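Complex record, three chains
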Amino acid sequence: MNNDMEGAGAINTLPELLAHALAMETEAAERYGELADQMESHRKAGVAAIFRRLEKAEKEHLGDLAEMCSKVELPHIAPWDFKWNHSESPEAIDFTKVHYQLSVREAILLAFEHERKAAEFYAGIALTTTDTEVQKLARQFAAEEQQHIGWLEAWLAECGPGDALATEDPDPPLCQE
Amino acid sequence: MEAVAQKRKYAAKDYKSELKPIWCPGCGDYTVLNAITRALAELALPPEEVAVVSGIGCSSRIPAYTSVYGFHGVHGRALPVATGLKLARPDLTVLVTGGDGDGFSIGGNHFLHACRRNVDLTYIVMDNQVYGMTKGQASPTTAPDWEGSKLTPEGTGINPFQPLVVGLASGANFIARVSSSDPVNMARIIVEAIQHPGFSLVQVLSPCVTFRPEQQEWRDVVRTAVVDYTDDAARAARRLMTDDGFNVGKVLYKGSRPPFRPEFEHTDGSVAELEARFAL
Amino acid sequence: MTITSVSLVIAGSGGAGVVTAGSLLLDAAAHAGWYALMSRSSGPQIRGGEAAAMLRFATEPIMSHDDSFHLLMAIDWDNIGRFSAEIPLVAESLIVGDPAHGEAPAALLGGQPRQAALPMTAIAEKIENGRPNMVALGAIAAMIGLPPEAMQAVVEKNLKRKGQTAIDASMAAFHAGFAAAADLPTIPKLPAVAAACEPRWSITGNEATGLGVIRGGVRFVAAYPITPATEVLEWLAPSLAKVGGMLVQAEDELASINQIIGASYGGVPAMTATSGPGLSLMIESLGLAVAAEVPLVVVDVMRVGPSTGIATKSEQSDLNIAVYGLHGDAPHIVVAANSVPDCLFTTQWAVHLAEAMQAPALVLTDQAMGQARAIVPRPAELAFIGQRLTATTAVEGERYKRYAMTGSGVSPMAIPGTPGLTHTADGLEHNEFGTPSSQASDHQAQMDKRSRKLTQFNYGDHWADIEDAEVGAGDTAIITWGSSTGPAREALRRYSAAGGKARLISLRLIAPVQPEKMAAALAGIKRAVVVEQSHSGQFYRMLRAFYELPAQTVSLHQGGPLAFGPGRILEQLNQLNAGSA
């Protein structure tokens, strides 16, 4: 069901691009934060730290973007009307793709996949738009996503053999309510 | 962000509480929580005018994770609590969240009568075909040959409960099935469910990563239903009786029964008038 | 002095119209300025079964039946024997039967009552559309001194829809019976009363219960039909609608209790009424109301248990489940009405208590008072209105604490719709915010708070009715509750009339217990008799557990459906004092 870019139409106005960017970056920041929370709740400090760093990065990104948006009247777009076509924004990791025994390496790869999708989304807009302003900004956004990809590549390179292992839990699940 | 804040009064995040969910990472319920908050933001409902009611179970933890009014009651009784709340406070938007065990087993009778009564509620059932909080027993929607629980090592041997068929037969006024792997459609359908008058039933296929890890394959099995909703209950029944449970992402049925609301004698009666009838 | 009263039973099989006859007689007695009490007993049939209307009339308020009946007016004898235990007849009693239906059954003759014949069928047959039950009413009126004008007025009102012919036929039969009574042996007659007496009401316990909750402010009721509580609901449904409230018929008692929890959480005072079997189903959710601190009122109109028991008859045997039935330590309120009119007072008080303390209040009444109709002095206006401590404004920068620690234990409750104070009410143990917590310290603090709000509340003098023959005098007490209070009251009166001095303590507040108040109430008391209608003596055991009782305390208990009459209680009082003398 993940047809992120399939059928994505062109974006030809600056406010529309900004609305998309704002939604995507907001969601990405929130998602990384929530995934970090989940991992912290399950005492997975290593994976949590990865998501927390990404949350921080996205928040910074979001700050700049918000600044940019404050001067523009943005259109309201319902979640299902964004150009990523009935799916969640490309940068947000699907909640159901994680697991509490996720390895550090798997977490980085997941983030990598979604940052790449984000970059592709902006690149796609730059390619299809008829508006030069939009094209310029979309390229800039794509470049910023590339920067994140760069970080993730670096983190991946830093990964030791232990980071590829699923976190262990010798205990069975517990009874609750 | 301010410009956005001016335009849209609420963001999805505004409907989330500070409390961190205790669900297993990968649980479908995270997606449902997100879809609910997205739907509420889209409807721009002030948080204080919304209530989420639940019983007991993993998915029944949702109220506390929202920033709206919440009620977390006992196992199986979310629907009556919500019924009382909505009838007493028709001004509120009332959602009910829960799981398949809570709704269709211990709360089964209330489910039938909530559909029948058709109070203006939105019931979101996260169906994972298992009891998660008690370590993975068969639920009413579990397949008869599932052998994953010590309680039923040979499988339950009984046919699974068909919530949407039963819901339709009992009088639910809006029926949809969505998948937790399709969060945006879920939000859209929850918006529709809330807007549709009467009792709206939304079944969410929400995998249990811990006790039913094989359900993660659901994301590849589900397909967007090919036909749009019908307002003909007989047609809806035929579709529901013949589908395999994996047609998702669309509303299946929309009825036009008016929601239940007890009729009042709109008299300006007073307690003194009631008392006068006892006087000799 | 003892009460001057006359007690009678009208009995007959299906079609005899004894229930209608009893109601007409009660209304006529009211019209004549008397006070009255009417109970009913019937067979298991939905229609057509044998039935008995038991009535007592007096020129002053009464709250109990007498020990025996002066008159049994039997329109026929079909199966009346099944009521023999409920219709005590003595040598002074009189059985009047219709020779057309043969002899009185032996089961009724144990007390060797007098017997007489009244050919009701034959008399009625001579009148077009005449009915034997109206003939019987005529004879009864003549025998007890009820003026025919009183019956005329009541018949005119009741048969208005059926037309003048029906009224005339009924009154013709009535007068024929009235005349025929001249040949019958006599029973005590009541004196006529001046028409302008104090204002009176005709009300059943179940109606009084309904009125009490509406007066207290309840505007939402959800309920499932159950005997003998159904009349509470039947009265409430149209009455609530008139004052802007509503009654919802739920799918079961689990739904009733949870619907009212939902409504009350929404800020609308709510209640349900049920009987033992329904209460059993509600218990888990009553605990939820304790934990989530949702005020509500549940009325249990007790019937004979266990299980389905005897659905149509009375017992005081739900005390244990009401007090101890909830799992966990679950402080809640249990109150009990002790007469037909007290159903009004006690339920209204219960709404007030529940709302003030944000806790569930159980009200125990029973079939005997619930389904009895009484002519009583107009009940007083009461000041009890449900009033909930609410939180209305958010404090900047502070997260709302639904379960905040307070001195009283009561925390201001934010009602949905209030901005800035959203929260989740929870049945899971929680901290002050309502966030689920499994920590010992949170459990301890919340338990303390839930307990404190009940124990520190000022219940005033309403915790019990304490009545002295002579204030401060005497060393003997009757301790009782619920519908055993009526006969106990009358026993006390007879005891005083004979020169004895005793005190009645009828507990209205069953839980939380009030040891200090009880100690004060028992000051100077050396002997006590505890009266209740329970096979295992539940009330006595509860008193023993929580109160310092006089060394010489005896328990007078028996299961339903029979109740102790005033005479039996008086006998126990006399025995107790004879033994100690």
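Note: Chain C has four domains: 5-183, 202-377, 389-457, 463-580.
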